[in-house]
Amino acid sequence: MLSHIALVFWRGILQRRLFTTLNVLGMALGMATFLTLALIVRYEFTFDRWIPDAEHIYRLDAFSDEETTVSSIRLIDALRAEHPDWNATAILRGFSGATVRINDNAWDVFIARTDAHLFDVFALSLAEGDPRTALVPKGVVLTRTQARRFFGQDHNVLGKTLDITQKGRTERLHVTGVLKDLPPNTTPQFDLLVPTSASEMQAGSSWEMSAAETWVRVSPAVASRLPDLLSGIVQRHAAGLSAEDAKAFKIRTRPLTTLHFFDATIGWGGADERLPIILGVVGLLALGAGLVNFVTLSTALAATRSREVAMRKVLGATVLTLGLSFTAEAIGLALIAAVIALVLTELTLPWISTLSGWPVGLDFGFALPLLLASAIIGGACAGAYPSWMLSRFRPAAVLASARMPGSGRLGSRLREGLTVAQFAFAVTLTICTLVIWRQTHLLQTMDRGFQQSGLLMAYLPNEQAERLRQQRLSDLVRGLPGVTGVTVADDAPGGGRAVITFDTTRPGRSDPPPLLAVVAMQPSTLPVWGAHLLAGRLFDTTHDYDSRAMPVAPFDSFLAGQSWTFGAHNVVLNEAAIRALGFADAASAIGAPITLHGKDIQTIIGVVADMRFKNSRASVTPALYYAVSGPIGYGVLSVRFDHAPENAVRTAIATVWKQVYPESALNLRSVGDIIDNDTRPEKQRGTLMIVASFVTLSISCIGLYGIAVFNVRRRLFEIGVRKVLGATAQQVTRLLVLQFLRPVLIANLIAWPVAWWVMRGWLSGFDRRISLSPLYFALTALIVLALATLTTLLQIRRGARSAPAIALSSQ
Fold first, then answer.
1. pTM, whole model, 2 decimals?
2. Do residues 325 and 58 touch, judged by C-beta distance below 8 A?
């Protein structure tokens, strides 16, 4: 029986080449899109799961106000005092960068300072060295990538030395281990691991200072009781904290395998979980479109095989044999589509990964079972209706019929319903794609409150001696060709490193005081940034209170645990601060006094537009700007240039930098690059949606073309009768086109509310967003209707122009 089924299957392919090609191509496109997006979704949902015992590793977040990903280093002592059997470690996040020097070469790096227990928590493999002895004083563990960067090779580097400068202190370290490069879907990323003693890590620390990541690995039995075991631990070890402050501290245990999505919910990196979910739904819709197309064409094709089925039944074929034959043929075609889909995915995945930014590759162990299951399910669905319908035909009635037997009204309604579902998928995706593209365009082109072009940023070294060189660097850079402005502040496009917030009140108001970000800057900063002045004036050094010396930077005071006195200043606020303080408008705030941190009275002299320095999604933080005469702690250099090539300006700045900071590496970024990095997730989403929409529309048009071919062939007799009775070719064409467009119109009516609901929810996550205009829905309808018309028109016109004699003889 199998040989008979195979023979019929092969003959069917040869006899119905057009329908077979359309069928397989539509299914293959749907499968390829589904597989590509499934690989991306798998990548996102398997973050950190490759780490041994990842499900038993937890990060401990200790906080008193809002949760962050860091905690106090003091938590380690408390844990080891109460639970000495736990593996616990800490990874410090230094507030200043570090520079690696080897001979005359320097690199700007991120250093993770840790204790000797890191590899007890994270059982990571070393390419060179022993994890048990690698974390020793004066040692350093590099990743393979960093080893190649520093030494030109990733092997035979044990014992080599390098100098690391951080916070004005230089130490010579020797390489004790080479860590295998961590997969990109890893939350804790380590470039350089520098073992550090407990006393060094805890120097100057306090419970209020959150600067470390605290990790533990515990057994499942302990994990189930972690919240109870950690309850009150801060209060029991809260040296230096008041009883009230200690009581406010909370500790949350966050499983490592959940951090990738969780951190995004608290605004500390990670990824929005909705994105892979949306991509997964899009992939299922693309697969559904391919499957619907497959079932639709299989159902239409089955109607042309009535006489074949009748003859086979006359010759002894049973209902079971016919049903198995149809199902096997459909699964066979689906398997061919699966092979083509695998090839398409292999060819296009590098391109898709480059455009979207997801570093995914084709995993055959994951792809083959997925495609096999899709082929079997799709083939079974496609073969079910023909098996049920055709195997029950009465041979005598079919063979005696003068016309081509069909599936009747039930088959026509089924095919029309499947076409409606198919185009509903396509219309929904197309509307979503247009909205996402427009929102991404808005993020890339919107006014961010400052002049974006011609602006370069660089973080400055932060030690006291290094801060004193800021003015020399500024003077040298200001004299470079093409440079029109140079300034230093502790915030800038892309984000500063030490901006802190303070409660701010207006005299006579009883509302809860809002928190304002307090930003230190030179008097020239706002003009160099190109800030938009809305009311009042900017800083002017001829006014005494416009620019005052700050003996101690606010963040330095915070780190040292000292009380901080801000003093009286003239200040400039942004729009968000004006709204938070309850002023009617910008003009009404000019000259008004405000109280900072309950004791320091400031006078508002100007209001500038909100400047979006960081996340495009989030609302702008209320900010207070004050001018400082003298060095600025944790400063960011801003350089404005014009009428000069950016590369030439970069090269000139790098030359000057080496003169002023020979021991530190320069990390110069353009605002354009910063904005590109900020909007990359939306661009990735938009790229994938465009591809998925194109594929889904293509599949729908392929299916519609196949149905048009089938219906025109079946209705040639009807066309001939209409033409004999006086109908013209144009009238017949119009009639058939309108009949084919009916399911497309119905699909639009179904898709519009779904797309509106989905996009309304997605747009709500943006502070600045486009309006959900009816134009997106109307434009999509026009595009889809035009494609449907073009797809069917050629075949319909060919049938409508056929001679009546030929048409009447077709049956």
1. 0.75
2. no
